[in-house]
Automatic annotation (TrEMBL):
InterPro entries: EcsB_ABC (IPR010288). It comes from the Bacteria. One of its GO terms (cellular component) is membrane. The chain crosses the membrane at residues 21-43, 55-75, 96-118, 130-147, 168-201, 284-300, 306-324, 350-370, 376-395. Keywords: Membrane, Transmembrane, Transmembrane helix. This is Putative ABC transporter permease protein. Pfam families: EcsB (PF05975).
Amino acid sequence: MKAFFQARLKKHQKRILRYMKYVLNDHFVLMMTFLLGGIGFYYSNWLKTLSPGYSLGGLLVLVIWIVSLHMGRFVSLAQPADQIFLLPKEKQMRSYLSAAFSYSCIFPFVVILLILAFTMPLVVVSTGNSFATFFFYLLSLWGLKISHLEIQRMSIFQDMKKAKKNAYFLWIIFTLIILTISIWFQPILATMISAIQIILFHKLCWQSMNVALDWEEMINEEQDRLHRIYQFINLFTDVPEIATKMKRRKYLDPLLARISFSQDNTYLYLYARRVLRGNEYSGLYLRLVILGGVLLYFVAEQWFALGIGVLFIYLIGFQLLPLYQQFQYVPLTKLYPVKKEQKLLAMQKLLFLLLIFCAVVFAVISWFSLSDWSEGLIATFAYLLMVLFFVKFYLPYRLKKMDH
């Protein structure tokens, strides 16, 4: 069964890697490089302003580490047909799940390593510990994550909901104790306790594997995990594996009613309706506007605020470009007596409204965060200029390439 898992894993990785070339495009890499570089710059400057023994630093690190421990889920790669075709092999599924557990540790271990490396300077400033304690922190966090994954694996067996809740509550207590000892007392002692809790949770969760598998729960958990991955990939390219969910959202009907009922607004109405009622684009738009606004609120340097605002306006517009092809394979749109150029005009109108609203939000926040009114005025002008450039020049260029 381990070989069966490896074969399934290889197929899964091949499918994900095929999508990664669309995710890791030049625009995304440029945006992440700029964003991470800016965050690192301000983070290092902020650390220089802190005095040794900064009291709130430890609490901030504690919260960040607890959040990082919840990143990464148990990967079973279970498929809907498994509850029929693999049911005779249920006793052999223990080795399959062991291989799945080992693979499930890779991603969260890497994430924890990166987050720990990022927060380590703050730990040193706040606690006075040396950078040599990094490895003790890392082992403690990895040990806690192993137990967290053990609890997730336990949940795919029958009648384990209550046991999972109790185990998770116990895990939270161990997490708070271990991380508190690590940050404020003795990292080596915390690592030893972390090793003990690994053994405890392994024995506790291993007992659950004597009962039958909850095939439906295992499949649902895996489908939910994959859905989250495909949702992210779907921001960059079409993913056949994901089904788009639509919501009525009657309270947004007045916005659609503002579009006049005429042949010239056919695609404008379709695109606007798709944005307002689909989770994909509306959720993406709101998340990026909120994220950009939060970053701008904490930025007091003029040129960095200008760069963040312009970058997020571009990023929002770029991520909405796939909307152009949403109705490409709908037969009825081929029968509409409308010109093809109307699609471009509709996209320009819709993106202009969305990006202008975003620019106004960013401008208002910049006026509060920047120290001088002239700096806010320059930032506002730059945001509006970026909207015009994107809608009038960049959008037609990108859509022309998409048509070819």
